[in-house]
Specification:
- The structure holds two protein chains of two kinds.
- Chain A is mainly β.
- In chain A, the strands form three sheets. In chain A, strands 2, 4, 5, 6, 9, 12 and 13 form a seven-stranded mixed β-sheet that branches. Chain A has a four-stranded antiparallel β-sheet with strand order 1-3-8-7, with no helix packed on it.
- In chain A, a hairpin with a 2-residue loop joins strand 10 and strand 11.
- Chain B is mainly β.
- Classes of the chains: A mainly beta, B mainly beta.
- At the A-B interface, strand 5, strand 11 and strand 12 of A face strand 5 of B.
Chain lengths: ~120, ~110
Amino acid sequence: EAGVVQSPRYKIIEKKQPVAFWCNPISGHNTLYWYRQNLGQGPELLIRYENEEAVDDSQLPKDRFSAERLKGVDSTLKIQPAELGDSAVYLCASSRREDRGRTVKNIQYFGAGTRLSVL
Amino acid sequence: QKEVEQNSGPLSVPEGAIASLNCTYSDRGSQSFFWYRQYSGKSPELIMFIYSNGDKEDGRFTAQLNKASQYVSLLIRDSQPSDSATYLCVEGGTDKLIFGTGTRLQVFP
C-alpha cells in the first residue's frame, strides 16, 4: 500500500513569492490533514478535510494561506505571499476512522513533508 | 484548550538500558493517546496507541496510561542506537490530534 505522497520535498523561495504544496493521501482515507511543524516543536494542525469539505480550518491564516481538496482526494496548500516566518516543514496526513465499540481509533499516517525556506 | 506537555530532553541512555519517556495532559476527559517517533528530517510514524488505564506492550515498547494522574509514558526496553529519535506524545480521542513538543532520545553505544 502506497503511503501519503507529498511534493516537493524542499522549496526555497524569496519572501512575498507564492508557493504551493501538493499531497496525495492513502487510497481510501477520507480524512486529510495539513500540519505545520517548526523546528523543535510538534506539528500544528492547519486544516482538516473530510472528503472535499474543510471541517476545521480554525488555525489556518486565511489572509495568506488557502487550501483545496477537489474531488476529495488530492489536496494543495498555497501560501501567497510567503513571509519569513512561514519557514517550516509542512506535513500532510491522512486517516480512516475505525470505530471500535466505545473507542474511535483515528490513526494518522504522515507524508515525508515539504521543507520550506523563505529567504 | 487541550495541552500535552513533554520534557524536550535530550534524554540520554546507554545501549541496552530502559528509556522512560513521559508526558502529561490537561483534559481530564481525554481517553486515547498515541506515541509517534520522528527521526531527524523525517515524518512522524506511529509506534503505540493506548486508550485504557494500565499498560500496553508491543515488543520492546510499553505504553502506560494513568487517567487519575493525567500521565502517559512510553518505556523502551533494551534501547538501541536506532531508537535515537524524537518521541511525540499525542492526545487523539477525536479527529484532531494534540501533539506534545516531543522528547529527544539519544541512545549511546
